[in-house]
What we know:
Strand order of the largest sheet: 9-10-14-13-12-11-15-16
Number of helices: 23
Distance between the termini: 33 Å
Strand content: 5-15%
Amino acid sequence: MNPIVERVTQRIEARSKATRQAYQERMEHARRKGPHRSALSCGNLAHGFAACGQSDKSELRSLTKANIGIVTAYNDMLSAHQPYHDYPEKLKKAIRDVGSVAQVAGGVPAMCDGVTQGQPGMELSLLSRDVIAMATAVSLSHNMFDGGLMLGICDKIVPGLLIAALSFGHMPFIFVPAGPMPSGISNKEKARIRELYAEGKVDKEQLLDAESASYHSAGTCTFYGTANSNQLVIEMMGLHLPGASFVNPGSELREQLTRAAAQHVTRITDLGADYRPIGEIVTAKTIVNGIIGLLATGGSTNHTMHLVAVAKAAGYQVDWNDFAELSSVTPLLTRIYPNGQADINHFQRAGGMPFLIRELLRADLLHNDVETVVGHGLDKYQQRPTLTEEGQLTWVDIAEESLDEDVLRPHTQAFNKHGGLEVLSGNLGRAVIKTSSLPEGIQPITAPAVVFTSQHELVDAFKADKLNKDCVVVVRYQGPKANGMPELHKLTPSLSVLQKRGYHVALVTDGRMSGASGTVPAAIHVTPEAVDGGVIAKIKDGDLVSVDFENARLEVLVDENELNARDIVAPDLSEYQFGMGRELFGNFRDSLSGAESGASVLFRED
Length: 606
């Protein structure tokens, strides 16, 4: 085992000894109390199966057959979740075929960051993760279930489902993906059209044509953002069937993987001989494996918050230093947009998850002494699923070589020896920066600040040609408590254009970019955030700001005494508090923990 990986894992375990023990005691208590439908009164049980068919009702009355709760994030507006429309019936049938029962326990909201980018609704996006966790808990609270199937894919949805599943850690859960849409317009061409639109060189109709050619059918968006990072991390943690992450919707292989997941969860409940509760699968080693997979592929920076919150749900304390230290020894094995031009389908064809996991194991970067939904260790996850000539699902060994080394490489020929995530510290606080997508040869930036309190102000300044200069763009009051911490993808085309014009530019914000900053150095998730009195709230136009990702420093170069004497610049944030349902989340925003603590309201210690 790589000594750094081992050290970080042991540090997490030591730091979390008391909280993990308390979690395990709660889960053992829950196991003793349930899930046992025998604990329900006759009236409780009758309500629980009143709408079932006679066959299912008889099975549930017997108290000996597994009842699997399905939690679904289906809606037919999200391309990623539209394929789930008929999954409940498919899952129920598959489970009936092995003599057990399934019921839809509940549905959770699933919003699309792509639809809400730059819009007021985006300010509910991060908050929706905790709503999803709570809605899932309510769905599973009836004590009717022996295991669960989680139907969710996109940004906040999978972390929310996982946090809730860990609250029911005495039960087994399998996550059931639906797969990415087929490839559309190339990512390079899409980015080109966006930049031309930002400069006013193409009109809105041409931009919409390009976007529609990219996001064009049912399935997950094909770029490597948070949605596909979710799928990769869940598989690295052993919570998918092996190789399930990136099989396209509607294919026969996708159908068979879905059926197999449904039937397999019935075999790992407490009613059988191979009990595999999620609370025992998700350990410090599992979480570290998920982080390593994320770093080796240049995944979404949103997981520097999500995985912290997921870890807390399992009784573990993870911080950004853990991410940074693991990143220092994790090679970058993929180039997937926005860290390259390929999409997730190209990654899948090049060798996909089995190749990635095999190479990370060979590099001694993954813990293989872990439990998964299919057994001990990650051996099965080094094989790819396929169908025999008779249409039966099986797993086979993969090729020794990558089928496209521009997309996926062995660990001995990595694109970079570093995972591409840095934690910056200095008098501005702490932040994360994704360096894996930066152009080769780019240098740390020290330049005068140009300060904004909204992404729209920046776009207006760009259009007015006020940013044609070397500068560090500061966009503050975008943190969790200020306005829910929306993603700021609207900034990317403008900043990229400035960079291509030859200016040295960087971004500093207490908001999110989810790794979509592309080629522009972006210090994001700055904490303490401005609304909490962070120094980012004291920066003035013209102050020199240093974004030094080589030495992990983030500083405003102002005399300490002057900086301490400055007043906090506090704008009127009332426009973020009403409209599009935002008024319902005021208590949420006020109670959110900082970014490094998971930006959550769910944990008492925060």
